[in-house]
Amino acid sequence: MLRMLFIAVFLSLYILMVGPPVLLYTLITKNPDPVYWAGLKGVMFFVGAVGVRVRVKGVERIPPGVCLFAANHTSAADAPAVIGAIPQRIAVLLKESLFKWPIVGQAFRSVNFIPVDRGARDSAIASVEKATEAMKKGQSFLIYPEGTRSPDGRLQEFKKGGVVMAIKAGVPIVPIACSGAHRIMEKRSLVIHPGEIVVEFLEPIDASKFSFDERDILNQKVHDAMAAALPPDQKPIGFCGAA
Predict the structure, then answer these.
(1) Residue 151: inside a domain, yes or no?
(2) Whether this model's pTM surpasses 0.90
(3) For a disulfide at 234, which of 31, 32, 227, 230, Cβ 3.0-4.6 Å?
(4) With 0-12 CB in 10 A as exposed, 13-18 as middle and 19+ as buried, what is 6?
(5) Residue 187 domain-assigned?
(6) Whole-angstrom Cα distance, residue 47 to residue 60?
């Protein structure tokens, strides 16, 4: 709990000190990079300060150009680890409530993150369409195809919105296997444990080779690639090698 309190206090101070001038700079220059990298580097500094290490593998597998990164989601701790591991500026589909936070919400919008109201189907579809159009214009995205955090660290079934985005935009999907984050910070817990999170970029899958009618096949291909790369205790029950 003390580690979480440390992050909450000092990250809040960092946001209050750095956020307004960087947001003003972005407003004037229309360049979102300073907000993105200042926010990310700040979060990663405080994550490291409480004893959380991030080990990154497979960066060389990331293809050039626009990509749709797809990661498993087990903990609040895996978001900074995964985003921090991606070597390019990406946008994220985030739940709408996060955009209501002062300064942070404005920062999310300035770097082209897209709010999603998961409780309203039509609104969620509109958000996915907006992200698809952004990818067509050159913006890479990160999605969590499970739709929510896993309760036990094991990979869950995927929703189809992500692969539909990739098929429509004609971009490669880069599966990301994130392991260990559920031990750092359990779901619905504010306790942070020191330890290591491993983020591994897997072989890209060319979504342009799949039609809309083949979206289920592509979805399962991405799911199985991710499941195969996860440790035994994070593989789905019944999957080869699951413990």
Answers:
(1) yes
(2) yes
(3) 230
(4) middle
(5) yes
(6) 25
Q: What total number of domains does the chain contain?
A: 1
Q: How many whole angstroms separate alpha carbon 243 and alpha carbon 231?
A: 9
Evaluate whether residue 158 is within a structural domain. Answer: yes
Specify if 38 maps to a domain: no
Beta bridge partners of 194: none
d(CA 178, CA 40): 18
226 closest CA partner among 141, 148, 157, 162: 157
* H or E element, residue 92: strand 91-95
Question: Among residues of the chain, what percentage have pLDDT more than 90?
Answer: 70
Domain span at residue 116 reads 52-234
The CATH number of whichever domain residue 121 belongs to comes to 3.40.1130.10
β-strand partners of 176: 71, 201
Hey, what are 74's tokens? 């087990």
Q: Taking a C-beta distance cutoff of 8 angstroms, is the pair 223, 69 a contact?
A: no
